[in-house]
Write a structure and sequence with these properties.
The chain has helices spanning 3-9, 25-47, 65-72, 77-94, 99-126, 137-151, 156-169, 185-193, 211-224, 232-255, 281-289, 298-315, 320-331, 333-354, 365-371, 383-410; strands at residues 133-135, 195-199, 202-207. By secondary structure, it is mostly helical. The chain has 16 helices and three strands. The protein is globular. A three-stranded mixed beta sheet has the order 1-3-2. It has one domain (17-418).
């Protein structure tokens, strides 16, 4: 049976087909916007004085409004990346890629991303041997693609339903404690709770992004994919109304403390989450918006994707150089991601060394953040310099990303779709 026959037989409910090679520029712009914000977050991780990866800039007792906003706005990044991965998979189907080909691509691409996360990227975060495995957004996208490789055989509306069910229901599993599961502890850490991974008593890495909620988000993206093939005005209205509905549901759930976010977080961002217990207005707003990312709660997904969907129609109004820059970054997101990890880490070492600050902690960085934070004392810069460093990083990356974007536009080598 040929791929064409399987496409005809597949029960996926497609919208109008798309021509091969056509890109939806607003998707690239949205991806470019969030990848620029992601770079800001990682610059803050490496450059900010005593406020990097191991700190909690969302704690109202220790943060400032500027620092809080700098961190919180980057919450939009991961769910958008994963959601758009699902949308992109559906658009490949809409362009004529049959389920067997699409499934194979998602499986191999997912395995490739996981491999790079635990090798090239984990080393880039650490700059040391042996390095800790840092399993975060690329890891989550990789495994989510593998799950989607199985789901694409189902009708699109069924995949949409599965995504919504996982996003809505996974917080019902919060009372399950991985440490109480015996031999299944690692599996539950992998799927739902996240946290350090041990060999014996030796920590070897951190699962920052447990998989189940992210699988729900990528399935939601695939299920929503048909919306992005609609005529632009209809597409934009649907996305806007979806975003407003998600924000309204977030306000109800959060305002009445009904469901969808743990009372307390765990790990590096632990902070009490009952906004009603705060006496100052600023602290009340901060706690109200401080929804759990690790793993992403229902409320986290509602507010982040709700905001992203609500601003989507504004992307069509962006013109000129800003549109070009965002399109370039968004067209080559993985290329940007790999380069920026190494660039930000290297620039942090160079900048600290240039002003006579200690740099020892930047080697074996991930281990030092959690096990030897004293090695990072005295390093780093104030928040205004973080924004300067962020702009420098974007300026250095732009010509490289522009070259890679043009290369991918000129050539159709199969391996380019993996980078």
């Amino acid at each position: 049976m040929t791929d064409a026959t399987l496409t005809a037989a597949a029960p996926a409910s497609a919208a109008r087909p798309l021509a091969a090679g056509i890109r939806i520029s607003e998707i690239d712009m949205l991806r470019g916007l969030v990848i620029v914000l992601m770079a800001l977050d990682h610059v803050r991780d490496y450059f900010f004085t005593n406020g990097g990866l191991g700190s909690n800039p969302l704690d109202p007792t220790t943060t400032t409004a500027w620092l809080y906003t700098t961190r919180w706005i980057t919450h939009l990044c991961a769910p958008t990346f994963v959601f758009l991965s699902g949308v992109s998979a559906y658009l490949q189907f809409a362009k004529g890629k049959a389920p067997p080909s699409l499934s194979r691509f998602l499986l191999t691409r997912g395995l490739w991303l996981i491999f790079l996360e635990v090798t090239l990227l984990s080393f880039g975060w650490s700059f040391g041997f042996p390095y800790a495995f840092f399993m975060q957004v690329i890891w989550a996208i990789g495994w989510s693609m593998i799950a989607l490789a199985a789901l694409v055989w189902l009708p699109r509306t069924v995949v949409l339903g599965i995504g919504i069910a996982i996003i809505s229901g996974h917080n019902l599993l919060d009372p399950i404690n991985a440490q109480e599961l015996g031999s299944l502890q690692l599996l539950w850490t992998f799927l739902h709770d996240g946290g350090p991974v041990f060999v014996g008593e030796q920590p070897i890495g951190l699962i920052a992004y447990p998989l189940l909620p992210w699988i729900g988000i990528i399935a939601f993206g695939y299920g929503m994919g048909a919306v992005f093939t609609e005529e632009p005005a209809k597409r934009d209205r649907t996305i806007l109304f979806t975003g407003l509905a998600m924000l309204a549901l977030f306000l109800v759930l959060r305002g009445f403390s009904l469901y969808g976010d743990p009372t307390f977080a765990t790990g590096p961002e632990a902070v009490a989450r009952d906004w009603r217990e705060q006496t100052a207005l600023g602290a009340m707003i901060m706690v109200f918006l401080d929804v759990q990312k690790y793993p992403p709660s229902l409320q986290f997904t509602l507010v982040t994707l709700g905001i992203v969907f609500t601003i989507w129609p504004l992307l069509t109004r962006i013109k000129g150089p800003v549109r070009s820059v965002l399109n370039t970054f968004g067209a080559v997101p993985f290329f940007f991601y790999v380069l920026h990890i190494y660039l930000v880490h290297t620039l942090a070492i160079v900048a600290n060394a240039a002003v006579g600050k200690p740099i020892e902690g930047y080697f074996d960085y991930m281990i030092n953040v959690f096990l030897a934070p004293e090695k990072l004392q005295g390093a780093g810069f104030t928040l205004p310099w973080i924004y300067v460093a962020w702009i420098v990083v974007l300026a250095l990356l732009y010509p490289l990303c522009r070259y890679w974007q043009q290369l991918k536009a000129r050539r159709r080598d199969w391996w380019l779709s993996y980078l």
